[in-house]
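Troubleshooting: if your tokenizer reports a length mismatch, compare your output against this known-good record of 207 residues.
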Amino acid sequence: MVKYCIIFIVACLMNINVFSQNTFYKKEFDKEELANFFLREGASLKDDSNEFYKLKHKTDSADLGNYIYPILIEFNVDTLKLIEDLLKFQGDTSICVLPISCYDPKSSHIYMGQLKDYSIQVEALFIINQLYFNKSFSLYSPYPFVTNIETNKEASISGEIIDMAYEAYRQWYHKIKKIGLREARKQNIKPLDGYPLKWYYGLNIKL
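Known-good structure output:
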């Protein structure tokens, strides 16, 4: 009996440990970090008079995780739980320290529009793409902002388009949670299916 109690306690502790790892936090950059923060090719330094942030996984203690995508996760994690955690950043309009840029290394397209920054709530969705699509995320969402394909309007901070995107992602999350990630990918179920939205210059890829 004691043996089974010990096994049960160890299992519970392991579950608690895994749960605690499946958490993102918002790293704030101080002025010294911003002064030394060189962005991607062709971008200028951020204005350190403002506050800038970056979402990082709790297990990512490396400075490299401040500057790159896809995100760095050091341990095996529950992907569905991570997606659930990231959806909680809805409404956070803090500005991401990274600029709007193309994260598809194979693309030669250059965005010439007016958007320069994107919010933490948009970064959260962008990271969800990385978790779900894996290496194909940069094809589905090469740029971290969303376009309404009916109106050709773009959004990277907040507003109706971002609210609609979150609605789409929540519906998609409930669906894939019910059937599982493997089956969702097999059925080629994507977050923005059924909505007049797409990630800028993104492709309608097949999983």
